[in-house]
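Section 4.2 – Deliverable D4.2 (structural model, holo form)

The reporting period included a commitment to supply a predicted holo structure for the target in complex with fe (iii) ion. Inputs used:
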Amino acid sequence: MKIDLHAHSNVSDGTESPGELIRSAAAAGLDVVALTDHDSTDGWEQASVAAVEHGVALVPGMEISCRTAEGISVHLLSYLHDPAHPGLLEEITKSKDARLTRAQRMVSLLAEDYPLSWDDVIHHVAPGATVGRPHIADALVAAGAVADRTEAFTAILSARSRYFVQHYAPEPAFAVELVRAAGGVPVFAHPVASARGRVVGERTYRDMVDAGLLGLEVEHRDNPEAGRAFLRRFAAENGLFMTGSSDYHGAGKVNLLGENVTSPAVLARIEELGTGCRIVRA
Ligand code: AMP
Ligand code: ZN
Ligand code: FE
Ligand code: FE
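Output (structure tokens):
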């Protein structure tokens, strides 16, 4: 069984439609894939249809943008939540709207130094999709400023760059509470990915556990080995399960489907704990 629990479609900042993503998952030999677009579940329906067609099981999911009071970015994966839960829906809608304003602010700053307009960025965003820095990166590539998204992130768009602007996002423990209230299974995504920016200390992990956190994404290419040792210890001490995933973004990132996987036992646990919706099987 090959299980990959973190992948994006063009409903956020991946490059493939939800249907194409499922086709890619089948081609990569996956048995199970989770669709986890940023702050949106709009891809679930199309992915479900494709999952049945291609014989891949789909775990409906989402990646929720969060930020601590100190301003550190945290990503929370949610699996099998009720997509219509009002409290959760309200928060992700706030984040999604704030992401749009934030991207526009970043583009105004960038336009002082690069041949870039808001229209150039929107050109790379599928209708209704959650806007992110990768879409700005695509416009910078098209403008010839950088070779690819990766170069755009290292050279221009990083959290340390002068063009970087933050957007509204709920605190991690609050997001965990909302996911549980919606019947979902909350998993802390790439918790020690220090190359992306500052990472949280143990206090935040404890707050998230108290709020109902259930798992940690340990096997992820952005988690350095030293950090993984901490994660394994913390998970064992706090009764959390551990996942492994690719964080696939189609052609937008080097990450390949199935490059990290989750055990069938952990998937069974997620299925048992998630009550907001069901895994889609052929
Ligand atoms: P944002 O959500 O707008 O803050 O942008 C962060 C998103 O960009 C996350 O989904 C990351 O996976 C993605 N990202 C971060 N670094 C890179 C990179 N080097 N190349 C492509 N995408 C990236
Ligand atoms: Zn993404
Ligand atoms: Fe993430
Ligand atoms: Fe992700």
